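Attaching the record inline, Q. Sequence:
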Amino acid sequence: MPPRTDQRAGLAYGLAAYTMWGLLPLYWHLLGAAAPSEILAHRMLWSLPVALVILAALRRWSWIRPLLRQPKRLGLVLVCAVVISLNWYLYIWAVNAGHVLEASLGYFINPLVSIAFGVLVLRERLRPLQWAAVGIGAVAVVVMTIAYGRMPWIALGLALSFATYGLVKKGIKLDGIEGFSAETALQALPALGFLIYLGVHGESSFVTGGTGQALLLAGCGIATAVPLICFGASAVRLPLTTVGMLQYLAPTFQFLLGLTVFHEKMPPERWAGFALVWAALVVLTWDALRTARRARSELAAAGARAGEAVAAQATQAAQAGPAAADRTAPEPDVPGSVRP
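Structure, as predicted:
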């Protein structure tokens, strides 16, 4: 178990990461004068220098050459870069088009979609409560479809793209900052080309929007990288179950922003759909906590049994020692006796 100070630091990093992710709609809203495609291009472009600065500070360059020698892994990095770009674009568009609540729904149902991917793609077996959570989530999608009068495609698109991103990253096996750097390296050149195109045609808000707009667009790289760094620092210090519970903070903040800052409508039928999703997440979290607690108990019991076995062997060895010594000790010389 990590030291208590490490756990406190990990919790602080995790709270910072998910709070920043949850408040990102405020940042994208400040950039509402720019098209979502331009915001996305700046996010991709300015993330690269931030990643390079971090790699230089940590002196972590050794992973680059082996990655370049493995075309399959490079292909997976490219897939990740494309999928996360689609996720980013859809999220930025949703915020600036007034769909913050539906965007938050996407990240609420993301754990359920990830579980479904585990069953369908990785052939994982679910526990009964996990099946129940997925079933409740499916009912919630139906209710939300009725509530919106259409399929909640923004929420589903965000959940599916992010779950796909997580699935593909499992095959790359790069640490957080390394994977982020590799993906942004592939994103930067197309982003730069698109921004040059906008500038040539006089459609770049980076050029025409004033100093404040230019600084905000350039800051997209920091807004992307800083939460990721905090998340990485948290993930290595906290148990997976704690990180799993913290992930609900971001969509919760987004949901509250949609209600209180952006004043989006929430008729009763949408409340019903969200309530079903939250119920599914409660079931999922309870199952995860119960499973983790059972695993810790079994590990402690196994450790206790191993300790008892070692102690018993030591006791037997101690008892057998004097007897063996008696059997091997030389017989005392008796006067008049003849030793063979």
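The chain has 14 helices and no strands. The first helix runs from residue 4 to 30.

More tomorrow.
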